[in-house]
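For the sake of transparency, this paper describes our internal protein records without simplification. The remainder of this section carries one protein's record, kept here as part of the documentation:
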Amino acid sequence: MTAVVHNNSTYVGQAVTVSFNVLDEKGTLLKTASQVEAFYRPSADHALGTQVSLDPGQKAAKVEASLDVEANGAFSDKAFPAAPTGPVTVRTGEYGQTVASFELSNPLTVALKSPRVAVVCTNPSGAIVGGGSSYPELVPASGKVKVDTDVLVSGKPSTCSPYVGPDVSWDGEGTPPAEASSSAAAPQAATGSAEAAFKKWVERFNAKDWAAQYDTLVSAQRAVVSKDEYVACRSKTTAPEFKWLKVLSVTDGRADVIPGTNASLPSTKVTVQVAVQGAKVPVTAHMYQEDGQWRWSMTQENISNCA
């Protein structure tokens, strides 16, 4: 079972889970299996697959996949450079299995150890009909190796495409200078973005500048809570101090109903890593574009306490 998942953000390191349900022709759920990996390239496709064995007499007719992306910071936040691959040939192996063969080049200036090479096979219409994965033990620095990957397919595939990622312990070592500078520059180009607005929110929060915070509150909530009410309400509470560490992910979401109102706005979900009392934790904010600027909203609890 194989899925191709696209990273919609310019960041990497998110935990990506794909859960596969296997059903028979009557729609009966036969088995469930899942695969957890990380996005390793920004704004790129990633292949996630796993294998499942059915009980005797069971026959799969359909596979349904569901997706979850969590910016929990458990994986490296360094973008892995594109690893070039040569033309893929599909052949029958010694034991009758289908084998996808191709050359893999190492884009790093150090040896690449046990990279995860996922292969996705499609039919002439572009539908996924199978796949597989392999882990070459060593690809020399700036060198190349031949990769033979056993793939499980339904019928004869027309195309098999490799997706090359680092092993889970890689943390940016050996990245070419051009790649390193471009990946590091991505967050710097965030002026006027949702993540820049959230960073400013954190700065004002730490400074206890509640009046400035209120000025960027969504208009629907400013109609419910006055500025004096908000400042007085926030001034009564003891607020912890956050130390901004890094952005983990930025994704466009569906329209949110603004708490305490009947209004709704499309949101951009920003997840960042902050330090609170020495602990590194992820914090997520929903930011909204309104009147040409990024705005934020209070939770229902804060609305109830302050209104």
